[in-house]
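Severity: low
Component: inverse-folding endpoint
Summary: output formatting inconsistent between runs
Steps to reproduce: submit the following structure tokens with default settings.
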């Protein structure tokens, strides 16, 4: 089994590699990817208009904010939201290229003096359902394992961290799902990896989320159907409609028989909404968990490819350690030394 430090390095490298590899294909369909690149297996210059910087060896906001979160914790020597918020403001001042609306507007409120407890709140109905938290939340899973924190302590951190930029229940459900998935991979190796068992652990934790969200004084976020029932029942039509993350993560039970085109149809073609991109990424990871092919396949399937690539890369690195990634992709990262050094400093700070 890889060492704990190798797994931590692997998770950090996975976020960066998946992010940078998927950058060129973001927003494209599989047909468009094939037309422009053939098959994305290496870093390519983006042809889409989203990216002003057309260089191939550049990561995006996924890795930028993942590192910002880790740096905030390292600087404080603990999980500290004020420190994490300061690092988000630093990242904002460096570049907001690629940032989603929820994150950008929340950090602008932080800059203006709004406290992190309120910065994610907005009157805009379309805010808070994106994947801007899951792409950067890996450090919470690592911290929880390294300090052996209690479940209650972990939930408080997840809620605080998520609501700083994404004040919504789907965002919380996505955060819980990915933290539990990463913890499962960090605590197991490929010989012990059982996708259905991982999904079962995610479902168990999601069952607690409505109650804990209310317990931490955010009852306004909990769907009305959940307030009558503290567990999720697929037979309850209202809960299904109000719990898209839970519903779509539950669809993954059929992943062994699900073809890629079916996954695209089931999960919104892997777009940027957390209830689409997260289960979409988990489908590819679970199908091809033994190799880097999982990252290649999720990127070439289209959608929000930098984020789905970073999600799969994080899971793959947490499961296998750093050696799962091709050496040339590590070498050709934007500033690979920074990624590895941040991972090592995180390990030394909290191990």
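Observed output (run 2 of 3):
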């Amino acid at each position: 089994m890889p060492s704990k430090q190798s797994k931590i390095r692997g998770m950090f490298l996975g976020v960066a590699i998946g992010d940078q590899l998927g950058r060129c294909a973001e927003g494209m369909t599989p047909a468009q990817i094939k037309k422009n690149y053939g098959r994305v297996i290496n870093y390519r210059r983006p042809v889409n208009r989203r990216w002003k910087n057309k260089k191939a060896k550049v990561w995006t906001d996924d890795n930028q904010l993942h590192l910002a979160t880790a740096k905030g914790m390292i600087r404080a020597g603990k999980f500290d939201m004020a420190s994490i918020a300061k690092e988000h403001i630093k990242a904002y001042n460096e570049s907001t290229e690629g940032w989603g609306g929820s994150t950008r507007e929340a950090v602008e409120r932080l800059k203006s003096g709004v406290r992190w407890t309120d910065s994610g709140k907005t009157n805009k109905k379309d805010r808070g359902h994106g994947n801007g938290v899951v792409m950067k939340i890996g450090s919470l899973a690592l911290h929880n394992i390294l300090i052996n924190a209690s479940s209650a302590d972990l939930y408080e951190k997840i809620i605080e961290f998520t609501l700083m930029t994404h004040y919504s229940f789907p965002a919380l459900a996505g955060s819980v799902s990915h933290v539990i998935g990463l913890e499962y991979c960090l605590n197991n190796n490929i010989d012990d990896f059982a996708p259905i068992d991982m999904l079962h652990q995610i479902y168990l934790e999601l069952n607690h989320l409505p109650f804990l969200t209310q317990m931490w004084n955010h009852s306004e976020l909990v769907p009305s159907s959940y307030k009558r029932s503290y567990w999720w029942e697929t037979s309850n039509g209202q809960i299904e409609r109000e719990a898209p993350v839970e519903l779509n993560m539950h669809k993954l039970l059929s992943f062994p028989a699900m073809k890629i085109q079916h996954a695209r149809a089931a999960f919104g073609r892997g777009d940027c909404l957390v209830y689409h991109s997260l289960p979409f990424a988990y489908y590819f990871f679970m199908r091809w968990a033994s190799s880097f092919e999982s990252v290649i396949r999720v990127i070439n399937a289209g959608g929000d490819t930098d984020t789905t690539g970073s999600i799969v890369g994080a899971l793959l690195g947490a499961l296998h350690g750093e050696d799962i990634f091709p050496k040339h992709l590590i070498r050709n990262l934007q500033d690979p030394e920074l990624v590895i050094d941040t991972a090592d400093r995180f390990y030394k700070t909290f191990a």
